[in-house]
């Protein structure tokens, strides 16, 4: 294979080493704690190299499929033995048959599920060079664990190289690499799997990785003298931003904070913290709650606020979501010296006039004392006047994009809390005008029992499925199989469920309230009057019209364009940059 890369020279010691690679795709999903612990990090892919160049970091191109063949052949000539770990069933073995010196081939699924067993097999094989081909972030995490468990081995990550090697020893013709067209070659051979990676993802990466050079340095990495690889050094200081949310549960504010942390804010993330845990959320693997539950005593409240004050100390920016989080951040700001106060962004998910009385009073005090540096309203429907703060609407989640299956496996679907403002009973009543149709309700709440009784009284209980709370991934699968997503609410702010519906290409039927204007005004949803069961049923029936469906598809695309992840992420990052800019 013709390569512009040269063999990496890592000395053989009793200390194990890890070498990994980043491209624009893996950088978006990377486990940066694991990447920061690697001994060498190569820059893979023309797009990431270009991004780093624009950020002032000149890095020579490198990648697993360019460098690894040279490295492994050199190690084999030295008498070292090699292990391949990764890929689907049989892939590592097929790749090993094309390469000399491989003494062990382990698949990347069942073969790595039992880590102690994997370590035992690697030790027994005698391999001193281990190649992991599982993709990010799994391969980086496993590489660091193996480095801790094994002595005197070199560990390399390989991404999809095993699949390429299993297909052909020279997967890329030499001219493809010379012209930097490897991405196009892969796209032509794997269009279904890689279409998004080489079309949409570069635009997402351009926003979310705009400070990737600084993020790499913050992880403790610097350039070798030949500008090929990043290696360890001491971290450098950079602005520190955290988010504070009232309670950990499945709701819009928590979803937005997760998205800002994981999708919008680049590789470091704007970490989310919660005053207390209400019911949990499958979006967060680590809760980061200041209290286990809502404080029930003055002592518990003071302990929680003291932890919040400690969290805020030394931060550059605190983004406070929801009324009580805003109030708590304001109170703790008042307890700090002016020079030590972080900048505060108040994010309003409700109209301010709907705030609880105590939170509203503290908020008003914070406004009078100029303790809020910027206000963000998630929808025009919650903004009190056009000159107040800024509106940053929530994004359509890119990861959920897909073409809806034109089947009625789920039929009519509602994803909502069972509370008065959601008016779920209107959809149950609409079934009386929709013979043969079924309604699935995802969620629960204080009115669940009443809704069950309502379905029995209306004689449609056999056509209403109470599915209860579901993981976010399962909800999206249900949306993709539904014939319509219904939201009959009497009041909303910026419903995340409609954004996920837009991403999943499910037809939308919504009540005529201001908060639903972002889909109805764009023609992305059919509308009925609040509490009008007959109108809801008529809207559902009209979905059978092909002209109506095509019009809805055009409206969906308009919303996707306006509220794309890159566009919304840019607004959030610009907001933080503006707040931190010298005055």
Automatic annotation (TrEMBL):
Keywords: Glycosyltransferase, Transferase. GO terms for molecular function: glycosyltransferase activity. InterPro entries: Glyco_trans_1 (IPR001296), WecG_TagA_CpsF (IPR004629). Gene3D superfamilies: Glycogen Phosphorylase B. Residues 410-543 form the Glycosyl transferase family domain. It comes from the Bacteria. Pfam families: Glyco_tran_WecG, Glycos_transf_1. The keyword Glycosyltransferase applies. Its EC number is 2.4.1.-. This is WecB/TagA/CpsF family glycosyltransferase. It comes from Gordonia sesuvii.
């Amino acid at each position: 294979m013709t390569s512009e890369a040269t063999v990496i020279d890592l000395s053989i010691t009793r200390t194990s080493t890890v070498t990994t690679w980043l491209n624009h795709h893996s950088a978006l999903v990377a486990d940066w704690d694991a990447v920061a612990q690697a001994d060498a990090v190569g820059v893979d892919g023309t797009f990431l190299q270009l991004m780093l160049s624009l950020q002032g970091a000149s890095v020579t191109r490198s990648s697993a499929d360019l460098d690894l063949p040279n490295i492994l052949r050199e190690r084999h000539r030295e008498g070292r033995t090699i292990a391949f770990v990764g890929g689907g069933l049989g892939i590592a073995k097929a790749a090993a048959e094309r390469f000399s010196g491989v003494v062990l081939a382990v698949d990347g699924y069942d073969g790595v599920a039992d880590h102690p067993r994997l370590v035992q097999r690697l030790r027994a094989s005698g391999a001193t060079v281990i190649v992991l081909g599982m993709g990010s972030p799994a391969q980086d995490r496993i590489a660091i664990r193996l480095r801790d468990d094994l002595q005197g081995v070199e560990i390399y990550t390989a991404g999809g190289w095993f699949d390429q090697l299993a297909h052909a020893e020279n997967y890329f013709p030499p001219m493809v690499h010379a012209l930097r067209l490897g991405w196009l070659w892969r796209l032509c051979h794997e269009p279904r799997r890689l279409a998004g990676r080489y079309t949409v993802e570069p635009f997402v990466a351009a926003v979310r990785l705009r400070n990737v050079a600084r993020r790499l340095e913050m992880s403790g990495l610097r350039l070798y003298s030949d500008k090929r690889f990043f290696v360890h050094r001491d971290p450098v200081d950079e602005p520190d931003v955290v988010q504070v949310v009232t309670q950990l549960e499945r709701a819009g504010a928590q979803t937005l904070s997760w998205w800002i942390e994981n999708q919008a804010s680049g590789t470091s993330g704007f970490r989310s913290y919660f005053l207390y845990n209400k019911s949990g959320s499958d979006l967060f693997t680590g809760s980061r709650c200041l209290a286990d539950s809502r404080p029930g005593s003055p002592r518990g409240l003071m302990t929680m606020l003291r932890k919040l004050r400690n969290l805020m100390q030394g931060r550059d920016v605190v983004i406070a979501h929801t009324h009580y989080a805003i109030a708590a951040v304001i109170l703790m700001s008042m307890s700090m010296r002016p020079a030590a106060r972080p900048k505060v962004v108040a994010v309003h998910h409700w109209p301010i006039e709907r705030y609880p009385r105590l939170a509203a009073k503290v908020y008003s005090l914070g406004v009078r004392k100029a303790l809020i540096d910027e206000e963000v309203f998630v929808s025009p429907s919650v903004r009190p006047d056009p000159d107040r703060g800024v509106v940053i609407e929530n994004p359509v989640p890119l990861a959920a994009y897909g073409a809806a299956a034109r089947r009625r496996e789920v039929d009519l679907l509602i994803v909502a809390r069972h509370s008065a403002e959601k008016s779920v009973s209107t959809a149950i009543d609409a079934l009386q005008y929709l013979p043969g149709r079924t309604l699935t309700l995802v969620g629960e709440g204080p009115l669940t029992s009443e809704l069950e009784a309502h379905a029995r009284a209306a004689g449609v209980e056999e056509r209403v499925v109470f599915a209860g709370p579901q993981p976010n991934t399962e909800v999206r699968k249900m949306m993709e199989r539904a014939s319509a997503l219904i939201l009959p609410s009497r009041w909303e702010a910026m419903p995340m469920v409609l954004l996920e519906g837009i991403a999943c290409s499910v037809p939308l039927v919504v009540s005529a309230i201001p908060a639903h204007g972002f889909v109805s005004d764009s023609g992305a949803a059919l509308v009925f009057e609040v509490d009008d069961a007959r109108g809801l049923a008529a809207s559902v029936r009209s979905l059978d019209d092909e002209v109506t469906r095509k019009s809805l598809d055009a409206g969906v695309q308009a919303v996707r364009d306006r509220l794309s992840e890159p566009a919304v992420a840019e607004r959030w990052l610009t907001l933080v940059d503006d707040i931190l800019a010298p005055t």
